[in-house]
């Protein structure tokens, strides 16, 4: 019996995560869909920009 698509996808993601860590990737996000397809979002640098909230008061910084 052949493995389910999501089982194969999980194995693929595990291998990609291992290689991403070894390569020093800063950010990696995977999304596994029920049909076994994988969406990968990865970067060698931290994302810049985004929300500039200060942790003390959660208001936008300047």
Question: Can you describe this structure?
Answer:
This protein is an alpha+beta fold. The protein has one helix and two strands; from the N terminus they run H-E-E. The chain has a two-stranded antiparallel sheet. A hairpin with a 5-residue loop joins strand 1 and strand 2. The N and C termini lie far apart (59 Å).
Please name the defining characteristics of this protein:
two-stranded antiparallel ribbon, 19% strand, single chain, alpha+beta, 62 residues, 31% helix
Task: Set out the fold topology.
Elements: H1 5-23, E1 27-32, E2 38-43
Antiparallel strand pairs: 1-2
Brief overview:
The protein contains one helix and two strands, in the order αββ. The chain is α+β, with helices and mostly antiparallel strands and 62 residues long.
